Amino acid sequence: MAATTTAVVVAIDGPSGTGKSSTSKAVAARLGLGYLDTGAQYRAFTWWMLRHGVDVNDPEAVAAVAAKPTVVSGTDPLAPTITVDGADVARPIRTQEVTGAVSAVSAVPEVRARITALQRRIAGDAGDGIVVEGRDIGTTVLPDADVKIFLTASPEARAARRNGELTGAPGAAGIEATRAALARRDAADSSRKTSPLARAEDAVEVDTTELTLEQVVECVVTLVAQHGQQVR
Questions:
Q1: What is the pLDDT of residues 175-204, one digit of tens each?
Q2: Which one of 86, 120, 157, 191 is most buried, counting C-beta atoms within 10 A?
Q3: Which residues face 82 on adjacent strands?
Q4: What is the set of domains in the chain, with CATH numbers?
Q5: Distance between CA atoms of residues 111 and 218, nearest Å
Q6: Residues 69 and 40 sit within 8 Å (Cβ to Cβ)
Q7: At what angle do helices 175-191 and 96-106 cross, to 10 degrees?
Q8: What 3-state DSSP class applies to 35?
Q9: Is 73 helix (H, G, I), strand (E, B) or coil?
Q10: Exposed, middle or buried: residue 193 (CB in 10 Å: 0-12, 13-18, 19+)?
Q11: Alpha carbon distances (Å) from 166 to 7, 97, 152
Q12: 156 to each of 16, 29, 135, 186, how far by Cα in Å?
């Protein structure tokens, strides 16, 4: 495993199914950095809302309880963890029920404010540096990140990848159904008033459609290394 010589903050953004999680974890592990999946935090809040009977389509109802869940994210890229009020929710937050509700919950300003503060605190405490993945990391959460990457991929590639990640489905979800769901989420995430999904002006865009995971990881590692050379 290679290690960075100075602390570095890497922001990796992009829509679902572009390879953010796999890439971010692999880059963090290779460089000896921490890792934070911010999407999992929003999923954790959404899971909590659903479990407690909150109407996720009622922004006021969601905002009223946004301060209640306690989410703790582990930052080890080899064994990332996430708990809500002490309960391990790594698998429950990946169900289709949560996937279908997370955009509505994450659009609520009170939820975003709470989670953004948590994300900044975690990044600030990462003494050796960290890779943070999400949708608004380079634009809103960590606009001063040392390296910013925005991953993209074709709709077909994204649907195929995401279709293999979902759990709890009554059967294998069809690629077309998954593609349609991703398109709806893209529209919701890109049009929300608070911190919409967008590429930071200074982010490097990487199309992962025709690339292997290793190729994407090598690309990001190279960009981090170039940053290190610039600051020396």
A1: 778 778 888 877 877 877 777 888 999 999
A2: 157
A3: 73
A4: 9-226 (3.40.50.300)
A5: 34
A6: no
A7: 10
A8: strand
A9: strand
A10: exposed
A11: 34, 10, 20
A12: 12, 28, 20, 14
